[in-house]
Task: inverse folding
């Protein structure tokens, strides 16, 4: 098992990629603190994980609130005594060019897609340093961290920030034994890509967005997250792992 005895926080695990990762990390031996704003769906995931004989605890929190982010890290210590892995996965799509995005939109989109990631890292790093055990951070970027995606001004801004934040943490805390890496998913079949007006909606696939010719699955991204969270990637830090069916090739 790749995560035996590890304590992992996974955010945004009630759906999509986070849901697949919660199952996979637990199956690989992690004790998972599973955090989401969706109470019922989050609880269902954790119940299903437990029914398979693995360890997970649901923690219902809104991660746009700093106090609730701190509570998430504190909960991991209270429940499991430690924090080894933080997988920041929660995020929302946000359409609009710079002309359409209002200050209110900006705050909504940045708060969950960037600010929550920043402060989750801050509190997790504090704890990992206190433990003197090092730790691993996996942040969720997007192809939008690297290239512009159509009509996604604030989403691109946030995801670009997540990639830079990850590098910054990797550099500053390498000596403390903390690794930080960024996942770069392409278009993945989840609730996020199943909404009208989304750049990721099926019509976008009729072009040449993803040379492999299909959407990725949440499980395919979860496996890459597992690699970054486990010792299999022990000499990898501050980099981006692209899981995009070739989206960034052209
Ligand atoms: N699906 C894609 O094509 C794609 C592509 C690139 C990047 N991503 C990124 O992958 C991550 C997961 O996306 P997904 O496709 O699985 O989406 P999803 O909508 O299926 O899951 C996102 C989860 O985040 C949770 N969440 C949202 N706001 C929250 C908040 N304030 N506090 C706590 N939880 C919150 C949601 O409840 C949901 O369970 C996101 O960061 C997304 O930006 C997705």
Result:
């Amino acid at each position: 098992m790749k995560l035996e005895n590890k304590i992992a926080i996974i955010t945004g695990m009630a759906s999509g990629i986070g849901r697949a990762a919660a199952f996979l990390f637990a199956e690989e031996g992690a004790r998972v603190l599973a955090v989401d704003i969706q109470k019922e769906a989050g609880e269902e995931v954790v119940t299903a994980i437990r029914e398979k004989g693995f360890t997970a605890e649901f923690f219902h929190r809104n991660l746009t609130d700093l106090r609730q982010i701190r509570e998430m890290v504190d909960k991991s210590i209270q429940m499991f005594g430690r924090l080894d892995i933080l997988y920041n996965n929660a995020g929302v799509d946000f359409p609009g060019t710079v002309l359409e995005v209002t200050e209110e939109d900006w705050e909504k989109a940045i708060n969950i897609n960037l600010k929550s990631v920043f402060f989750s890292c801050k509190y997790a790093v504090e704890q990992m340093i206190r433990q003197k055990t090092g730790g691993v951070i996996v942040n969720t970027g997007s192809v939008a961290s690297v290239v512009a995606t159509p009509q996604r001004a604030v989403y691109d801004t946030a995801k670009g920030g997540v990639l830079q934040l990850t590098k910054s943490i990797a550099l500053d805390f390498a000596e403390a034994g903390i690794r930080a890496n960024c996942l770069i998913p392409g278009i993945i079949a989840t609730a996020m890509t199943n909404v009208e007006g989304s750049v990721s909606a099926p019509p976008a696939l009729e072009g040449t967005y993803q040379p492999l010719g299909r959407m990725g699955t949440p499980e395919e991204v979860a496996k890459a997250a597992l690699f970054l969270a486990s010792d299999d990637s022990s000499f990898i830090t501050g980099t981006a792992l692209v899981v995009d069916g070739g989206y960034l090739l052209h």
Notes: The pocket of nicotinamide-adenine-dinucleotide is lined by residues 11-12, 14-18, 36-38, 62-64, 89-92, 112, 140, 142, 185, 187-188, 190-193, 200 (CB under 6 Å). The chain has a mean pLDDT of 95. Residues 124 and 187 are 29 Å apart (CA to CA).
